[in-house]
Amino acid sequence: MGIPALILGKSGSGKTYSIRNLDPNTTGILSVEKGRLPFKGDFKVMKNATYGDITKALRRANMATYVIDDSQYLMVNEEFDRLNESGYKKYADMALNFRNLVHLINKELPDNIVVYFLHHTQLDADGSIKAKTIGKMLDDKLTLEGCFDIVLLARKSGDEYVFQTKGDSGSPVKSPAGMFADDLIPNDLSLVNKAIADYGWLG
Hints:
alpha/beta
């Protein structure tokens, strides 16, 4: 089974920048909205990626790492595409489509593939940070963070951009015990890849 990992953060928190030190030869970037990266490099970027595009790319499994940037737009774009449809079913379909993508990674991909979902955050009714969705109706069907074993939060600490690796009462951050030695690490997905490999999760 592949490894889906959720990287949460506000716009401008360094999520996409964290790609910079991954190997362009073994990394596939599946960009749902943006077509350019905020740094120079030789990465190949699939632009305007849809669920179908992403599913086909993942099933080819010819990369060690995939990055879906930004994954919440999969839900947003589907909502706009189905704006004229009424009723509850379309929201259930949207939740199912996202869940099926995560299940594809868990069930069909080889053990040595990591798929990062770069995803925006929002505040819940009680002020807690959560993954951004398209509303309560979808949240009732899918607790998005529950689909992942690794949920990191991109944020600033002083002048540094970092990943928070352990949760607190106001965030959904989580990671397996002992995978990360520190509560805050540099926002570098190559370091996250190394931590996952050192933990023995890459087959």
